[in-house]
Amino acid sequence: MAQDKRGLELTAASDEAAAALDAALDDFLGFGREAGPLLKAAFESDADMPMAHALRGYFFLLMGVGALRPRAAKSGEQATGLPGTSRERAHADALSRWAAGDTAGAARRFEDILLDHPRDILAIRLAHYLHFYHGALAQHRDSVARVLPAWDESVPGYGYVLGMRAFGLEEVGDYARAEDFGRRAAAIDPSDAWSVHSVAHVMEMQGRAQEGIAWVRENEAHWEHKVHNFRHHLWWHQALFHLALDEADAALDLYDNRFRADTASDDVLDIANAASMLLRLHFRGVDAGGRWEELAGHAAGRFSDGIFPFFDAHYMAALAMAGDTESVRGHLDAMAGRSGGATADAVYDDVGLPLCEAIAAFGAGEPERCFELLEPVRYELYRLGGSHAQRDVFMQLLIAAARQAGRDRERRALVAERAARKPGAVAAWMN
Ligand SMILES: [Fe+2]
């Protein structure tokens, strides 16, 4: 039987087909730009590899576009219909669950696969992704810890696993160990954007803005031309460091010339980066010019995606701040009417919808209503997933709403709270 490069059994017509699939997976792990064509080449080697069908389905889902879910489901059916190992059947099942919105079920499946196959790096990465967007931080940390004993320098992809370990530790506040793992990973492969990103997060959370700017710049040459849209997120982090230093002009320059230079992109993380940065700049009194309208043009059609409410909150920011009231209403209605049995449904009901209504109220010039909607759910926002650094924008929204609504008691308390969390960030003291 064929094997992948980490020694896992793979149903494939030939070693060449298995190697072609490895190449597609490698590119995916490194956030490269060739994963699609490489997967196509793998299908040309062997059209009936269950893991190739699974990988294609996962690629559809990772794009975060509702319209691609049926195609992911079809890939799940194709993978299910092919003869395969128990691991391959488990992937087919995980994919089918995920495509149906049962992301909790998919995450459990990945963890189950990893008990038997701790070197299944695809399952590691996808569990990492889902735990992250579930806001399941302990699972996000422990998932990688459980598999690490099966890894060392001799196993291809070791650096990626160290990078994931780093990010899991960072999000639970274990910064020293996170930085150590992240730096080890980046030393193995400085073009590994996820590992570079993990270290940037440590610096963000510790208010090490100057170091953070230098860190992103130092590694840039390695990933700038290799990494797909995720490179925009690293430049977004660089802009965050500038904001912490109260350097709004530098942040806006990165917005225009780096992470939102491609205004044709409707990639979900690209939109989230951009909307998040424009909100933060808005809170600092920076005029967005026509930038909100540009983003709203991409966000308006995303009502029915219904993937994770974290994404919707950023679409909502674009729509609300651009004053597209019709799309705001449509988007809120779509979120209120969910009943598909998806893992995300309860998060939409409990947190996503109140947050999006709060954002809509802020955009409509109703800060008191924004505050009243957002304050009761502020300690539940972790359920949206995303990182602490990303969700900080909602804390800033709450502070801005308190200020505009004349709630000085609350504003003072919230600013003190935020500044205590990020004492090195000059801007945290200035709200
Ligand atoms: Fe990040």
Provide the fold topology.
Layout: E1 2-3, E2 9-10, H1 15-29, H2 35-45, H3 50-62, H4 69-81, H5 86-99, H6 103-116, H7 121-133, H8 137-147, H9 158-171, H10 175-188, H11 193-205, H12 209-223, H13 230-244, H14 248-259, H15 268-283, H16 291-299, H17 309-322, H18 325-336, H19 344-363, H20 367-374, H21 388-404, H22 408-421
Antiparallel strand pairs: 1-2
Helix pairs in contact: 1-2, 2-3, 3-4, 3-5, 4-5, 5-6, 6-7, 7-8, 8-9, 9-10, 9-11, 10-11, 11-12, 11-13, 12-13, 13-14, 13-15, 14-15, 15-16, 15-17, 15-21, 16-17, 17-18, 17-19, 18-19, 19-20, 20-21, 21-22
The chain binds fe (ii) ion (FE2).
Residues 197, 201, 233, 237, 387, 389 line the site of fe (ii) ion.
| Strand element count | 2
Mean pLDDT across every amino acid position? 96
Hetero compounds? fe (ii) ion
Largest sheet: 2 strands, antiparallel
Work out the helicity level. 55-70%
Class based on secondary structure composition and strand pairing: mainly alpha
Describe this structure in words.
By secondary structure, the protein is mostly helical. Among the domains are: 1-120, Alpha Horseshoe (Serine Threonine Protein Phosphatase 5, Tetratricopeptide repeat); 263-431. 69% of the residues lie in helices and 1% in strands. It contains 22 helices and two strands. It has a two-stranded antiparallel sheet. The radius of gyration is 21 Å and the shape is globular.
